[in-house]
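Hi C.,

You asked whether I'd gotten around to modeling the 544-residue construct. I have! Everything is below, sequence then structure, no commentary in between.
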Amino acid sequence: MLSLPSLLSERVQSVAGIDPELRPATRPQFGHFQTNVALRLANAEGRPPREVAARLVEQIDLSDLCEPLEVAGPGFINLRLRADVLASAASQVLAEPGAGIARATEPRTVVVDYSSPNVAKQMHVGHLRSTIIGDCFTRVLRAQGHTVVPQNHIGDWGRQFGMLVEQILEEGLDASALDLPAAEALYQRANTHLKESEEFADRARERVVLLQAGDAETRRIWQQLIDVSLAGFNATYRRMNVLLTDADIAGESLYNADLPVVAEDLTARGIAVVDNGALVVFTEGFPAPAIIRNAQGGFGYTCTDLAAIRYRVGTLHADRLIYVVGAPQAYHFEQVFAVASRAGYLPSEVSAEFVGFGQVLGADGKKFSTREGTAVTLNSLLDAAEQEAAPSIALAAIKYADLSNGLQKDYTFDAERMVATTGDTGPYLQYAHARVTQILRKAEAEGIGFDAVTVLAEPTEQTLALQLSRFGEVVAQVGDTLQPHRLCGYLYELAGALSSFYEQCPVLKSEGDVRASRLALCAATRKVLALGLDLLGIEAPDRM
């Protein structure tokens, strides 16, 4: 449903012919909103602004929503929502299960590609951002009634498995007994061995051929490495309170058999051509061709991603594809989408969106890394935050810091600042939820009941009710634009409105209908805070 501000804006624009650009009124005596639309029209019409404003006030019918409109100053129009309209909107939020989140009239099947760690390696800070962002999209789109199919495109295929399996056999290891840190240490030993020994490198290459041919022993060890890695990934996902499970795994190996099929199809239709021994696709607008198969006969990421699009559209029946990947991969995916469109793998009615994200920076403003210059593991980042606060609060701090900025921006990881319960932080929103829950808990203990919001005489009550009316529309915007900072900003404003209401309007010490109405307003606010935090993947605690 449209929020009250949007409804007002739509009605005014239908008469004025241009966007009224409503702004919150600077003082309560000016109503709830002001617009300078008459001043802008006056310039175009060559008439006095107050005269234009008076004409608009006469023509705009908002009697079902507002008190009579007022012309102020040089030609501003003031709009004051009726108290009963605000009360009804807040009561509707309290009554509806989704608190105003509209279900999609045409639900879509949405594939969200995110997290995507590599087998035998611990997740690092880049996976932190991809996982948090993708999880938020999944929650928001499901809340709108879409069918969301997460795809965790793990790195579970490729030449590295030749050296890993050979190293395991040489050391006589039982791969199934490893944990993920031990598997990563094995990876590092194998990589060093590969660089130092040409004989080992030859064996590793031969082992890749055996893996691709389905050799039983090689496949058994390969599967053990995957199982060990998934156990480590899943432990981190549980710690992060994200929705990914093994059912969402769709690694590179899933598309292995389809790679030669894609190459043959593109070749047969003249889309791909051989250039300097490699099979490539030249696409208008891109300075370099997309490499489908290199001169040595190996398939690259482009071919895998094309096969994935074929699978997601053809088998999963996706209407919308969302890729949550580091910003430096933008060119790669733009090119993949262009080739997929040309090949018909990505029909015009299916949208494909690349959502790139920036880096996590340390306090020094540089890329967050260890002293050795290697990527910081995701778990060590969580550990650092948990040294500052309890796990659920630390996690709220990390997720909110990530999602409250524009995704493509880098952000600074400052655990001490992020866990503060004041300011624009996740824990501040958790504190607001706990605070309003405490009021409702006390009311219940004292046997004080409530039903709906009925009395809104005070400006801070009205402001809070007005904020509540915006929730569904903000969620819809996040689903459309994939910009979670809009929801973060909204929840921060809502928590601020709650704080002002709490300071100006006694709840339990008021009486009769006023008290019952204020308790209902508190309950509606708690509901929106809890739902909003859940969409961000953040726990809404009852106590802090």
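If it helps when you're writing up: The mean pLDDT is 93.

Thanks,
B.
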